[in-house]
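Consortium newsletter contribution from the modelling node. Members have asked for a concrete example of what our holo predictions look like. Here is one, prepared for the zinc ion complex that several groups have been discussing at recent meetings.
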Amino acid sequence: MERFIAVLIEHCAGKFPLWLAPTQVKLLPISDKFLPYCETVLQQLKAAEVRGEIDDRNEKIGKKIRDTELERVPLMLVIGEKEMNEGKVAVRRQGKGDIGVQTIDEFIALVNEEVKSKKAIE
Amino acid sequence: MLLKIKGIDTLDMIKITLPDGAVREYPQGTSAMDIAKSISEGLARKVLAAKVNDAVWDASRPINMDASLQLLTWNETDGKETFWHSSAHLMAEALEFYYPGVKFGYGPPGEKGFYYDVDFNGQNIGEDDLARIEKKMLELAKNNSVYERKEVSKPAAVKYFTEKGDPYKLEIIDRLNDGEITFYTQGGFTDLCRGPHIPNTGFIKAIKLTNIAGAYWLNDEKNKMLTRIYGVTFPSQKELDEHLVLLEEARKRDHRKLGKELELFAFSEKVGMGLPLWLPKGAMLRERLQQFLQKAQIETGYLPVVTPHIGHKNLYVTSGHYEKYGKDSFQPIKTPQEGEEFFLKPMNCPHHCEIYKTSPRSYKDLPLRLAEFGTVYRYEQHGELHGLTRVRGFTQDDAHLFCMPNQVKDEFKKVIDMVLYVLASLSFTDYTAQISLRDKEDRAKYIGSDENWALAEQAIIEAAAEKNLTTVVEYGEAAFYGPKLDFMVRDAIGRKWQLGTIQVDYNLPERFDLTYIGEDNAKHRPVMIHRAPF
Ligand SMILES: [Zn+2]
Ligand SMILES: [Zn+2]
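And here is the predicted structure:
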């Protein structure tokens, strides 16, 4: 396993396919104000077996996005006023950028589908 | 020109068979370079060396007998290796210029370049010096110095290196027989060498000395530590530039670097070198991968088993591993009971053989496929350790398939299917298989009946063909206990990696006296297949 994982890391340059990624999605609140909403979203993700984390640092959203990109986390959810009020999330994909605003159920369905199909990295 | 020579006495002609099967006649003493020129001047400009009856020769060496001939260029591995090895001589010449009195050990080519082990005898050399050595090499290369081969008697060879004061070359000469010693000279540098080399230094157009490391003479820690200088050379600057881009890309992807940045794994000197610590994120990744592999195994009919991390000395005496690796491995774990010794398990097979033996087996039970993510420990020398690729403790996705001789092919096909499924799921799209078979002539050294070997070899070849694998067959590369198939994958930046092996084994079933009752109600020996591809 060790050697194979080494080869895999070098092959995909640390950008693991979604089904394998240790952290599949990072929740990025625009400010502390949205942390409680992020917690609610994270609970829903956990219940659906989606592996998520919240970036609760007191940083600008631009920096949070850049750092998450560097961490090779495949998906990001940017969460601000509009998302919280509508009960939605703004989805970004690592290396690709914005892919639209979705409901949490829609997002979970997207993740599940991609994990189930073992979609390869592009 | 040679071809114009007509009416020459036919007794002096030799027949040269080219790779396409064409046979041409040349006067005795014609060299591969002459033959290349007779085909085309353009080709001759690219010829680095030649394969004459399966041995690599200098292109300039006269051929005096009928022979098969393959001209070697940069496109052939043997051509590249000759190029790189010749570059080691060039580097030695440059080193003698800056560091008078240096002594040289071995300077072989490798898959990615060359190195030379050098005794600087106290003179300082560091990474900063590499640039000026490269520059000197380029300057010397431009002289188009020919690599001249000379047969030397043993006393003359000893005399030369005694006068030069090179104890390493003298030690090498000591092991050689009179009549098989050759020197090569290019420019002002003479080396003891079997060859072959490229025609002249002018072929070397671009040079990069990559790093400096320490290396014990003859890899023995008791010997003096020499300085190993690594380098790589190319026939054009463009190829060097491409190589440097690739190196930079490889550096960015280095799993040791990413492992740290992505918090996947770490090493601690307190825990011990070569023993990876999987951090939460790395453990998550590993768990996912393991679950995925296990699911695929269960679908193929594998039965998961769990065995302990240690095994009694007698287990390894029975398996033969004690005799073979006893001294070079981790030392035994003793218990308060006098004489009781355990070993950390270096492989899972002996444990699995004992599981096979827990109940009588019939042909109806076969194939029996026992699988385990078994953690094994192997002693590797400190200097050999490298990130996750060379470690002292690691987990194999191991399985042992016990089957009847006529089931080998089907089992191989199933394993190939699983490997291809896993590779596809991880977007490895470029892979080949290497099949290792018995030596064509010397068959006494192999264990197991001739009939079973023939059956298994045929089975592996057919299984690979039916699965449309691109394969290379290597004769004489099989282990003494059975033929095998190895997978090689190419990664996203074109580097080749060898994965684990599917290995037939006639030895362990014998040593553990494994049997099954056949349809004929008689006892038979099962075939064992080891497979730990990931
Ligand atoms: Zn040489
Ligand atoms: Zn085994």
